[in-house]
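Standup notes
- DV: blocked on the single-chain target, sequence here:
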Amino acid sequence: MKICLDPGHSGKIEPGACAGGVTEAAITLEVAKIAGRMLEKFGHKVLLTRSGEVDNDWLTWRCEAAWNFDADIFISIHCNAAESTTASGTEVFYYPGSETGHALARCIQSELVALCHTVDRGVKTNDEWTVLRETAMPAVLVELAFLTNDAERAKLASGMGQRQFAEGIVKGVNRFADGG
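- DV (later): unblocked, structure below
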């Protein structure tokens, strides 16, 4: 399977959620790199939309990269944030009406929650986000956990935690590839 992994945000220009000296852009890049290596070991072909910081955070180039790669699936990786520091958990979004996107989201959500022991915030739809709306293949946006929650931020920032989140994504992808 050809998989496009999209580490959300861009670095200095658009770091995404920030808390406790940690940026979403840095976390998502590390998780995507680890997941990419794991997926390749399973025989998948992987494209990361970025391998470091980028100077442009227009979202359509991320979709175009997936189209040009002829990806079978697109996974945008993110960290969540909330005003409440007690907000926690994992959620995966897909474009409404996409049955294969829904199946992919369910597989990734269940594997992440089981492996990472996060609160199950569910699988949800979103028709406004460019990375879900403008992709031609099944696409999901994964909110790993909350950077604004101290315990989840510690897990997201640790090498062991990043590996667990990456493994959850990989197990979800392999489960999807095997028919869900």
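- Follow-up: The mean pLDDT is 94.
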